[in-house]
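ok so for the tutorial part 2 we go from a plain amino acid sequence to predicted structure tokens. step 1 is just haveing the sequence, like this:
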Amino acid sequence: MTTLGQVAGMAGMVNRVSGSAAASLLGLADPAASRPSHAASIGSRGAALVTSASAAPAGDDAFRSAYRISGNQLVLLDQRVIPEKLEDLVARRGSDVAYYLRLGACRGGAVMAQVAAYGLALTAGERATQPAAARDAELQRTRQALASARPSSRLPVWAMERMESVRAGLDETADGAAVAAALRAEADAIAADVQAGHAAIVAALSETLAGPLDRPLGVLVHGDPGALSGGLVGTAITALRSLRDEGRELRVFVTETRPFMDGARLASWELRHAGIDHKVIPDSAVAWLFERETIDAVLIGAEWIAANGDSGAVIGSRAIALQAAAMAEDAGPARPRVIVCGLSATIDPSTPDGHAIPVELRPARDQAAYLTGLSIRVSDALVPAGDVMPAGTIAALVTERGVLVPPSAPAIAALIGSSEATGPIGPAETAS
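step 2 — the prediction. this is what the tokens look like for a chain of 432 residues:
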């Protein structure tokens, strides 16, 4: 697999080339010769991941991808123990993947969508010799388990919808091997589409963050919008590396992002490997930071976006967005702008507003796991995994199709109704 540094160097090129060329740049192979013929009829595209059967030894400090394919198994990097340890978890079927997702071993909607797709493909391969009725029943159970494993994230649901569309589109006479091959090809396509989409987001976000040039760019990162949550190409953290490589001076702050410590453990680890200096601050110090530092942008990855622009993200996002909006009224041109990054598939037109975005409640262990010496009883814990930022607190939504400034309902409707969009899109403009 490719390191974060290598990917950051090619992100700009990926945004300017065709799908097949983008797949090649990302280390993916053109599937034209091997993809089942039915795929073209349902509009699928993408590529097969180049895989390796060898695993780096656990416990080293080298950057590693969030997952990899090794034969008939999926190897996940356990995000619960980073950075103290680098440990692998092996999944041989979709139910294994669903279990690891529920544990929190893999986080971020984009990477969860990819591993869920591969998990379903593994189940199809494992059940290929079963009678069709039994095989289809198991695939349906597994698909539902994967889609519901992390209910605050939209992208795993999107991935399962794509996988089911492929399965339903197969000829009734297709045998188990053909079903497994078709689902594996679609999983490859989902992975390729996510990576190419993230590369386009990196290019657009880098342009959005271009100014000012007379001083360091002040950035606050909340959560881990990097390669670990993206699968190979991250969004915000990759864009910061791209800006740094272009000579831009950065002043980066990272929230701890309690209770899972996504920022202190994961984002900080990614930034360190990218060679970007940063400071980790308590979540409760964000208002203090806004008062004392010039923060140009707050970068947050989206997990679920409603039709009106309300955006679900990692817990704490709402409080930060509201603080930034309050500061913006008096801060003048140097004000903290909340910039949300996410694939257009994160937008759910059937979710009217933030009140309809599901918020997952996590077990007490997520709250107690990183608090040394403190035991929290299950009955004493209330641990939401995410919350919702009102659309009015978001300055820009950066997707692979374009940048919404701001993410209003008309702009979102135009974006999701277009096949291609570039540049800033205002509320009264079209997305074409």
